[in-house]
Amino acid sequence: MKILVIEDQRRLGQFLKKGLSEHAYTVTWVQTCAEARDALCETGYDGIILDLGLPDGDGLDLLREWRKSGFNEPVLILSARDAVQDRVRGLDLGADDYLSKPFSLEELLARIRSLLRRQVSTKETVLEHRGIRLDLLARTVTRNGEGVDMTSREFALLEVFLQNAGRVLPRTLICEKIWESHYDVDTNLLDVYMSRLRMKLETDAAKPLFKTLRGVGYQLL
Ligand code: CA
Fold first, then answer.
1. Would you list the domain boundaries of the chain?
2. pLDDT tens digit sequence for 53-65
3. Is the CB of residue 66 less than 8 Å from the CB of residue 95?
4. Which residues, listed in sequence order, are joined to residue 76 by a DSSP beta bridge?
5. CA of 59 to the centre of ligand 1 (A)
6. How far is Cα 31 from Cα 209, in angstroms, rounded to an integer?
């Protein structure tokens, strides 16, 4: 399980990195909003621990950005701000949990476990959207009840869209989820796969299924 820790207090950051690593998490620790953005562009995480007061901005702005652009990683806010309205604001912006400082490592670990469990149990095995039905266990796709042949890569791509229907998915995020290392991927390849998906699934040109946001990414409508 990969955890991204965003915390500018050096001692606390080191403590979190050490404590989580000892419990078998793979931890990346960054100290600024800029580093957090870079880290998230580079790879995906199973969970994010987010401090709010950061030297180059507010953690809540980061959270707002992520949720707007379709990042759905679970986020636990770790902050000294513990007024009810701060918590509510964080949760409204899409945080999954909120822990105020000071805290105990035991409690943090328990919250992370619960966060990751929730993530797994909400993962449905059949995804449906506008007549398209993808069965994760049977590895089949149907469109209005009729079977559609898909390669494993096309299947994985469709799965990402169905799990984020309506969200704008940045190209880097899609590539990261589909290919093990998106550095090796010519991003034109994504466009090739998108046109194949469209050919197989968009039977009515008047009712497009995917929207292209030039230079940004794609959206399942
Ligand atoms: Ca701070």
1. 2-119, 126-220
2. 999 999 999 999 9
3. no
4. 49, 97
5. 9
6. 40
Q: Where are the alpha helices (DSSP H) in the chain?
A: 10-22, 33-42, 59-68, 84-92, 105-121, 152-163, 171-178, 188-201
Q: How far is the CA of 28 from the centre of ligand 1 (A)?
A: 17
Q: 183 C-alpha to center of ligand 1: Å?
A: 32
Q: What is the pLDDT of residue 41?
A: 81
How remote is the CA of residue 7 from the centroid of ligand 1, in Å? Answer: 6
State what percent of residues in the chain have pLDDT above 90: 48
Q: What is the CATH number of domain 126-220?
A: 1.10.10.10
- For the 2-119 domain, the top CATH level (class) is alpha beta
Q: What is the pLDDT of residues 114-156, one digit of tens each?
A: 888 777 655 567 899 999 999 877 778 999 999 999 887 888 8
